[in-house]
Design brief:
The protein has about 130 residues and is of the alpha+beta class. The protein has three helices and eight strands, in the order ααββββββαββ.
Length: about 130
């Protein structure tokens, strides 16, 4: 699946440096998750597998945040816990900070290690690990 036009439009609104980061992230994510649906979700680019959010990024005040919904289960020191569920993040201020090998490894883990965010409301905030 190609990168959604709304994600390309999102990237185009950013400063030149932030756009380079987001373009690099979206290209690598798309190559690593070709079967994933991608779209703007809650105003940010997000990739989904079978309706479950896997990875996305957003512009914060001073950086670009790459978020893996199940990232705390990846056992990766470079990913920092985010929020009260299982998400973890990496933050970038320049495109050369993106370690391609790390990103590809994290994306492979994102396919294998998933918590069911798709049904979190139905389960009243309780997450279950997908097989």
């Amino acid at each position: 699946m190609a990168i959604h036009k709304d994600i390309r439009a999102y990237n185009a609104t950013l400063s030149a440096g932030d756009k380079r980061i987001c373009d690099a992230l979206s290209r690598t994510i798309e190559r690593s998750l070709p079967e994933a649906e991608n779209k703007i979700w809650h105003r940010h680019p997000v990739w989904f597998l079978k309706g479950n959010p896997i990875v996305g990024y957003s512009k914060l005040k001073d950086c670009i945040r790459l978020l893996f919904w199940s990232g705390q289960s990846f056992d990766e020191a470079a990913l920092k816990a985010e929020g009260s569920f299982k998400a973890a993040e990496a933050r970038y201020t320049a495109v050369d900070q993106i370690a391609a090998a790390d990103l590809k490894r994290w994306l492979a883990k994102a396919i294998e290690i998933q918590w069911d965010y798709r049904n979190i409301v139905k389960r009243k905030g309780r997450l279950e690990r997908l097989k």
